[in-house]
DNA sequence: TTTGGAAAATAAACAGTGTTCAGTATATTT
DNA sequence: AAATATACTGAACACTGTTTATTTTCCAAA
């Protein structure tokens, strides 16, 4: 009597189909051009059908965000391999920046736009960001323990490194560096140099 | 025969009225709830009338952004008064953070949302941000000249300080620190401490 | 003071959005 | 085969930014 299981499986498959199309459209057309109607068109279902699988757009975006974090984790796994913890911290920082440059629309969804954060506002944690945060937190903690960086509190250290990188990325993504009168290539150079310098001055 | 002048003055007054109402609604109700129709309602004109004074919503938001930067400059003028340049840099940093906490919706418009940056995309500069950027740039430059901070390039230094503060503010405003499992008050403390520590380690 | 033309304001519409709901089609159970 | 439960959709609701044709208001010359 596996019909309940099959129904459940079919439901999961439909959700996958929706998320897959959604993330693909995000990457290709950008956040602003992805509507429920567009997604429905592409999977060849009525817009109302999407609401049978997702309570609202935010809930769908939350799953898309989850997928985006999986890609970030893959990038981390690919580029963080050095023996020394501090070197791994450098690798993580530049992998993070590179991810943002390669997938600006995903970065948007993960760290800048408001939308998918309204989902689990029940005082709970934000589960999507967990693996990436833990990767940074554990690495920073190891660096503190081995006295490789000038920090005492691992949370302060983790948030500082994160905020520093995110500050550059998000200001760049939102064109605020126009105020400095730099070209795109110049900005990239300044960002890279700034992060290098930051990692240097926090190094013990 | 000052009728042309009067017409021009009336036009300017109307634009002022629109911007004043818009910024007030922004602060009170938040960016997402402010529509052209809402603004039109409040100034008791038809929505179409707004388009006689502003080409589109972005152009209006650009003027609102200008107003918001004026408020930031006022805050800077109010809180930056120390003799020593480095102390002034500290004052600037915390005035910036305090502004973001006091006016989150304005901060959004100034530094986070995409909208008003599409206006002068003609390769030009971003004039709205100029005064605030210059204030930071000049102060940082003075600190470098007097060898008070560990930086050589004033642009790298300016963008680093800005990005560091902005990173914290924007991640907080977008609830991304939920991943760290901290309460609102705890986050504020970590942010303050992090900025203090950052200013300490860049101090020569 | 009336009239003609310019300027200002608007009602209504267009094309789009997220979302809901009544009704239809399909699948499963009795 | 009939009854029931599930899956799906067309159409609507209440919005959004924006445009256009129309009306109202203003002002200067006849």
From TrEMBL, chains A, B:
Gene3D superfamilies: Tetracycline Repressor, domain 2. InterPro entries: Homeodomain-like_sf, HTH-type_TetR-like_transc_reg, HTH_TetR, MT1864/Rv1816-like_C, Tet_transcr_reg_TetR-rel_C_sf. Residues 12-72 form the HTH tetR-type domain. The keyword Nuclease does not apply. GO terms for molecular function: DNA-binding transcription factor activity; transcription cis-regulatory region binding. Residues 35-54 bind DNA. PROSITE patterns: HTH_TETR_2. Keywords: DNA-binding, Transcription, Transcription regulation. PANTHER family: HTH-TYPE TRANSCRIPTIONAL REGULATOR RUTR, TETR-FAMILY FAMILY TRANSCRIPTIONAL REGULATOR. This is TetR family transcriptional regulator.
């Amino acid at each position: 009597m596996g019909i309940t299981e099959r129904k459940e499986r079919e439901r999961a498959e439909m959700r996958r189909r929706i998320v897959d199309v959604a993330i693909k459209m995000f990457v290709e057309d950008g956040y602003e051009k992805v509507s429920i109607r567009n997604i429905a068109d592409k999977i060849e279902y009525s817009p109302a059908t999407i609401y049978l699988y997702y309570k609202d757009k935010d809930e769908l975006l939350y799953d898309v965000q989850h997928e985006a974090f999986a890609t970030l984790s893959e990038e981390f796994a690919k580029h963080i391999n050095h023996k020394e913890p501090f070197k791994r911290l450098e690798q993580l920082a530049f992998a993070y920046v590179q991810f943002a440059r390669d997938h600006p629309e995903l970065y948007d969804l993960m760290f800048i736009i408001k939308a998918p954060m309204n989902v689990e506002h029940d005082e709970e944690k934000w589960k999507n960001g967990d693996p990436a945060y833990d990767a940074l937190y554990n690495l920073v903690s190891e660096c503190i323990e081995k006295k490789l960086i000038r920090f005492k509190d691992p949370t302060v250290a983790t948030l500082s490194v994160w905020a520093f990188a995110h500050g550059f990325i998000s200001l760049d993504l939102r064109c605020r560096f126009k105020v400095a009168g730099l070209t795109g290539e110049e900005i990239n150079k300044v960002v890279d140099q700034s992060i290098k310098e930051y990692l240097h001055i926090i190094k013990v």
